[in-house]
Every structure is written in C-alpha cells, then in structure tokens.
C-alpha cells in the first residue's frame, strides 16, 4: 500500500533502498506501515473497540525544498530508527533525489505532493 498511497515518498524510499540498503529503506517506510485503512480498522476492532470508522482525507505535503524533505529523513528520521549513513552517502542520495524527484518541485522551488492520512476512531466497550 505504501507506493499507491504516497508515490512521492515511495520514490524517495527507493533511493536509500538502492544506495544504502534495506535497513535504511525500511526505516523510512516505518511511518507508513498502516497504509491500509481496512487493516487499521480491523486492528482496532481486534483490540476490543466498537463503532470503528475511518476516513482518508487527502492532504498536501509542503516542504521548503526537495532537499529539506530528503535531508530531514536522512539526518533526522534514519538516526531515530537506528540507521546512520556516512556523509558521503548522504550527499550522493541528496544529489540523486534532486534528479529523480524533480517533478514534485514547484516553480517556486518548494517540494509539494498529495499525501493522504488515515483517521480512524472507535470507542471502548462498556
């Protein structure tokens, strides 16, 4: 579901997957593991919640630049997930990102793309 729901992030993840390995790619995929709303709703039901319902509004990701988005993930998120890349590899990925994700860059230089988010709620029984 990751690729279909947020293609821009899927393409970003392909870079470290190819250049740094699956540990880096899987760390970037982690925030999207609940990409199927039906599975998320079922998880809440199996935890005992009732009246479970969800929606998936389409939002818009908006970063000051493509580099700022990718760099935040490489220098911020990856280390949080225990993956550390050397500076040379970070620079190589950033350079590739400029080429491979350029279609998400606006004429003003911002990085913008559609980004859905699941919102699921339920109530505790009893």
Q: What does this 3D model show about the protein?
A:
The protein has helices at 2-5, 7-19, 22-29, 37-46, 66-80, 87-100; strands at 49-55, 58-63, 111-116, 119-124. It is of the alpha+beta class and 126 residues long. The chain has one domain (2-124). A two-stranded antiparallel ribbon has the order 1-4. The chain is globular. It starts with a helix and ends with a strand.
Overview in brief:
With 126 residues, the protein is α+β, with helices and mostly antiparallel strands. The chain has one domain (2-124).
* Number of separate structural domains: 1
Strand order of the largest sheet: 1-4
Structural class determined from secondary elements: alpha+beta
Q: Runs with pLDDT <50, length 5+? A: none
Largest sheet: 2 strands, antiparallel
Total number of helical segments?
A: 6
State the helical fraction: 40-55%
Total E-strand runs: 4
Average pLDDT over all residues: 93
Shape estimate: globular
Rounded Rg: 17 Å
In percent, how much strand structure appears in the residues? 15-25%
Give the SSE order as H and E letters: HHHHEEHHEE
Distance N to C terminus: 34 Å
Key terms for this structure?
126 residues; alpha+beta; 6 helices
Write the layout of secondary structure elements.
Elements: H1 2-5, H2 7-19, H3 22-29, H4 37-46, E1 49-55, E2 58-63, H5 66-80, H6 87-100, E3 111-116, E4 119-124
Antiparallel strand pairs: 1-4, 2-3
Helix pairs in contact: 2-3, 2-6, 5-6
């Amino acid at each position: 579901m990751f690729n279909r729901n947020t293609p821009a992030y899927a393409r970003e993840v392909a870079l470290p997957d190819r250049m740094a390995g699956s540990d880096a790619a899987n760390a970037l995929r982690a925030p999207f593991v609940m990409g199927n709303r039906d599975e998320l709703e079922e998880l809440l039901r199996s935890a005992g919640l009732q009246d479970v319902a969800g929606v998936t509004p389409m939002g818009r990701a908006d970063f000051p630049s493509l580099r700022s988005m990718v760099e935040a993930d490489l220098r911020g998120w990856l280390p949080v997930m225990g993956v550390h890349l050397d500076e040379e590899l970070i620079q190589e990925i950033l350079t590739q990102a400029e080429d491979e994700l350029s279609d998400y860059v606006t004429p003003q230089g911002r990085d913008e793309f559609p980004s859905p988010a699941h919102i699921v709620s339920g109530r505790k029984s009893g």
